[in-house]
Every structure is written in C-alpha cells, then in structure tokens.
Specification:
By secondary structure, the protein is α/β, with parallel strands linked by helices. The chain contains seven helices and six strands, in the order βααβαββαβαβαα. The protein has one domain. The radius of gyration is 16 Å and the shape is globular. The protein starts with 27 loop residues before the first strand and ends in a 12-residue tail after the last helix.
Length: 194
C-alpha cells in the first residue's frame, strides 16, 4: 500500500513539503476545475492551494457550488483569465482597473474542457476576461499539450497575480519545479520543448 504525506498529499517517496512556501496575495483566487482534472495526479491546482491556502476550488460539475459562485461574482470585482474575442491583454490594464479586481477566476482543464465550462456557464462570459500577450514560456513539462505557449494553471495564476499586484510568486514556481523533479512517471510522458 502506498503511503501519502499528510501535509502535501503526495506519495511519501515524492513528498514536496520542503519546497512549499506560503505566499500572501490580496486577490481571492478561485479555480473552476473540470472533474477529470481534479482526479489527475499531475494537476497543479493542488500545488497552488498548498502555496496559497485560501485558494477556492470549485468543481465545474457541482451545480450548487457553480450557482453559488455565479451569485457571488460581481462583474466589477471579478476577472476571468480566459482568452476570448472580448478579452483584453492583462499586461495592458491600468493600475486603477487592476486595483478594482478582488477575485481572479481561472479554469483548470484542457482547452476543450475549459471551452465546455464557459459554454455551460454563460454568466462567465459576462465577466471581464483577460488573456496573456507576453506570458513566459511554460516550464511545466510533465503534461502533454498540443497548444503552443500553454501554461499550467499554476503558471497562469502566478503570471496573473504578478501582473495585477506585483507580488513575488517565486514560491509557486519553486513548488512546480519540485513536483517535476520528484515525479516518477516515464520520461517519454514529458512534454518536448521546441
């Protein structure tokens, strides 16, 4: 039987507790997570919630929690990180607009899953949406993707926080690096860089 760490939740032989440092952010971080992603051992939302313990995780297939979230979202104080025709580059928003944002909402899942979540919850399309025009190259190599310049949910959150409140988010990247270094999966499952 595999033993798991009580703190980080990873198997004891891949425990990353020594690499987890909590960070304080003024933003409320909410992640809408696809149910298949929630079950995936390599999802980065678990790391995100270890470093930012107040992270709120809402399962997209939980209609009660999604309805509750929709009632709590105010289009002036919530921002959705999702590229759409109406989204604007987060790098271009003014300081006054950034200061109005209190809750940052991200979707955790494949691009197809995220699109499905948006279409199933049209209230999300009414929120101010932001995309990245100058995001760093992803360093998350233990998941495959066919999308160029795709970021892990942790990386997307870190970049958005940095753009909006200039907080040091290096603890997030450190945790992700530790997960990758301790990961015991086959090397051929890792993403190839161009």
């Amino acid at each position: 039987m595999r033993l798991y760490c009580d703190r980080c939740g990873y198997p004891k032989n891949t425990c990353i507790c020594d690499y987890i440092n909590e960070i304080n952010v003024s933003l409320n971080i909410t992640v809408i997570q696809h149910d298949k992603e929630a079950q995936h051992a390599k999802n980065t939302v678990k790391l995100l919630s270890l470093c930012i313990p107040d992270t709120r995780i809402v399962l997209a297939n939980n209609s009660y929690d999604m309805t509750t979230l929709s009632k709590q979202c105010n289009d002036k104080h919530c921002a959705l990180i999702y590229p759409s025709e109406a989204s604007i580059a987060i790098e271009n928003i003014t300081d006054s607009t950034a200061n109005e944002i209190k809750t940052l909402i991200l979707i955790d899942g494949s691009w197809k899953q995220a699109f499905g979540i948006i279409k199933k919850n049209p209230w999300l399309e009414n929120l101010p949406a932001f995309h990245f025009s100058d995001a760093p190259v992803s360093n998350y190599l233990i998941r495959h993707t066919s999308v160029d310049n795709a970021l892990s949910t942790l990386e997307a959150t870190a970049y958005a926080i940095n753009c909006l409140e200039k907080t040091d988010v290096s603890a997030l990247y450190k945790a992700q690096t530790a997960l990758q270094q301790n990961w015991r999966g086959p090397l051929d499952h890792r993403r190839k860089l161009p």
